[in-house]
Design a protein that fits this description.
Organism: Marivirga lumbricoides
Keywords: Membrane, Transmembrane, Transmembrane helix
Oligomer: single chain
Number of helices: 20
Pfam family, one: MptA_B_family
Strand content: under 5%
Shape: globular
Order of helices and strands: HHHHHHHHHHHHHHHHHHHEEH
Distance between the termini: 16 Å
Number of domains: 1
Protein name: Mannosyltransferase
Low-confidence stretches: 428-434
Strand order of the largest sheet: 1-2
Mean pLDDT: 92
Radius of gyration: 21 Å
Length: 434
Amino acid sequence: MRILPKIAFLLLGTLFITISYFTKRNESLLLLSQYGLLFGLYLLISNAKENFTINYITGFAIVFRLSLLLLVPNLSEDVFRFIWDGKMWLNGLDSYAMLPFEAVNLGYSDLSQPLFNKLNSPEYYTIYPPVNQLIFYIAAFANTTLGSIIIIRLFILLAEVGTLILLPKVLKQYDLNPKYVIWYALNPLVVLELSGNLHFEAFVIFFAVLAIFYFNQHKLKKSAIATGLAISFKLIPLILLWGYLKKIKLNYWVQYCLISILIALFTLLPLFFLEVFNGIFTSSALYFKSFEFNASIYYLVREIGFWQKGYNIIAIAGPLMGILTAFSIILYNLLAKESTQLSERFLWTWLFYCLFATTLHPWYCLPLVVFGILSEYKFPIVWTFLIFFTYIGYTKSGFDENLWITFLEYILLFGFIVFEIIRKRKMVPLYHLK
């Protein structure tokens, strides 16, 4: 094994620790410089993957994730809402039906003012599904915030390890080099946002890969169950059901969808016994009609609205983006060839969701990484570099989105996507992940 990749591995681990434990989100220059170095080392190591065994790659990937075990997330406050929800359940309160400020006034020691002050959306009802809430509840038994964070992280790590083990097997099913797993295993955004900042896309990715694995084995029921479990953690994977259209006979597709939806509904069953629908509906409506961040197509529509109406038309454009998302996804999967691999269908399906979203945080695009690896597209990896620059908007006093950064991000992304499509059609490989 060459000495240079060994040194790169050591430096990669050091940078994961320094950017996570010692760099604040508002220190933009330092944060982006470290991330740039991380990404450069990641590319260097990934292109030298033939020097390493699968066990070496996955082993180091797990070590890097374990090195973040004691980290209090530095790029996102979402974990504090996770803990808050868990503490509410632990004290016999319904986190779906009660706002955080209502709970803090009840005087429970677990629901303290310091924890409340760390919440990023205390004025909204929680919208996290029951399976997530169960993990929050288990984590709430810890006596300290760090203890709760460690418990949640162990669940995330379990999903991550599952993906690291399963992905090489799926790569073999597609007659691809199983060492391509390195492009997911060491991707800086994947490590920082999932194991670091504790986003539950880790479960979506694992169960989506599991669904592909079983589908390729012609085990449709197991695949449908896996898809249903992905939906249980985030409702967005519902869109992946369209990816199976025309891949199997229509009656089997209907059965597949029914099984997946029934599995998801079973995990959502607790909601039917709680007074939650008003709160969930309110928070979900606000998400589509109020929140906007790092959008692409929506921002163009918004600018047209400012020009035509003189004000922000998100109340109209938000739901419109949802309709266009559904239309684009259904149309694509209807027009896609039967021979198009499931992973590629998932890739474009998830991309349509991302492009029409009014809010797109960096971790939302992470499922594209595995779908891209399985279908030999590199643009999701490029996006994991570009999208990190959205953190430049954070300051000590809050957040101010830099639309020039957003514009540059999408211009470069769209350019690379077009470039890859053209190369694919010419049957000239853009890259062979050596």
